[in-house]
Design a protein that fits this description.
The structure is a single chain. With 136 residues, the chain is α/β, with parallel strands linked by helices. 27% of the residues lie in helices and 40% in strands. The protein has a 7-stranded mixed β-sheet, covered by helices on one side. Strand 4 and strand 5 form a beta hairpin. The longest helix has 18 residues. The relative contact order is 0.23.
């Protein structure tokens, strides 16, 4: 599996955990040996694994959470770090997101997630199946 495919796989695992409300899976996806940060839509920046994971526990256990889908994921790999960008569709609303990954113990894990509103929806010509690039 290429590094780009591995990052896309990790990004997909993030959205699967999110969609399934699976806190244990979500916790496995975040770095333990590096600082982590997160900016949920409309929230202030969060710093530190304990705080970030506490907010994910709250988000994932919310019974009124809407279904989420990841659309058009794209990745760029920079050696042992990578960025995945995509659209998030939540309850009919479109957000744009970036997920930053780092290689920790030979596994791609999250160190940052940020999502927020976008003024533009994906255009029909956007490759919603995803794509990737690599910079070594």
């Amino acid at each position: 599996m290429s590094e780009n495919d591995a990052v896309l796989f990790a990004n997909d695992a993030f959205y699967q955990a999110f969609a399934n409300g699976d806190y244990d899976a979500m916790e496995e996806l975040w770095a333990t040996g590096y600082p982590v940060t997160c900016i949920h839509p409309g929230w202030n920046p969060l710093e530190g694994r304990d705080l970030v994971m506490a907010t994910w526990k709250m988000v994932l256990s919310n019974p009124s959470s809407q279904k989420i889908s990841c659309l058009g994921p794209k990745t760029v790999v920079y050696g042992d770090s990578a960025v995945a960008t995509c659209y998030e569709e939540i309850g009919g609303e479109m957000l744009v997101a970036s997920n930053v990954f780092i290689k920790e113990d030979k596994k791609w894990v999250l160190v940052h997630h940020q999502a927020g509103p976008t003024a533009m929806e994906p255009t029909p010509d956007l490759d919603l199946e995803g794509g990737s690039g690599q910079i070594n």
